[in-house]
Amino acid sequence: MTEGWERAEAALAGASVAPEVLELRPDYHVLLLVADGLAGGPSDAASEALLARAEGEASALLQGTHIEELEHVAQWREAFRAFGAKPQRTRNSVEALLRRVPDGLPRVNRLTDVYNAISVMHVMPIGGEDLDRYVGPPRLVRASGDEEFDTVASGEPVVESPDAGEVVWRDDAGVTCRRWNWRQCRRTQLTDRTTTALFILDCLAAAGEDGALAAGADLRDHLAATNPGARVAERLLPEPG
Fold first, then answer.
1. What SS3 state is found at 35?
2. Do the Cβ atoms of 110 and 44 come closer than 8 Å?
3. Which are the contacts of 135, defined by CB distance < 8 A and separation ≥ 6?
């Protein structure tokens, strides 16, 4: 068993969602998917084709429909308001991607491109984290307000803190994603060198458990197609039953 796979299994086993988050949105589910043996690298022909497919599907979906009227997007806007965020200023990640479709989705690197495309096709916020940069397991909590979040402001690296009560993903070293799925920290973002990753698929009632599992299966298939030999496991939280 490789060190990367041990890290992936430990991340799944130790992951948690705080009761305070579920009180805010009892309909929330998250599918955590870990993968080891990935081949990181720049955007390539396979990721380009998948992004182009996502752009086409999103364009068809949005014909005559405003993005904010999509049921899952609307529910995420409600969730953001529930902890004090303004969704017009800090958009959930899938809404932010859908708004970029007319000008083209970003081309970042082969792993990020894949999860961004799946996010758009399933209208579901999805994040990707480099587990080699993680310290301890992922936890979704409501922030105390003194946690560290490393980001970029005006082109320069800075360390900020979330608002008290804000919903954040974090590990032992600090906040890894602010406002549920709005902005990821620099420390754990996927790069061309990533080989072990955590993918976070956030779902409210409009998608539900079935939607999370369907998006996860799609993500697994695309990772397997472009990363022969990679090992993948997943865990749904809260756990059924």
1. strand
2. yes
3. 171, 172, 173
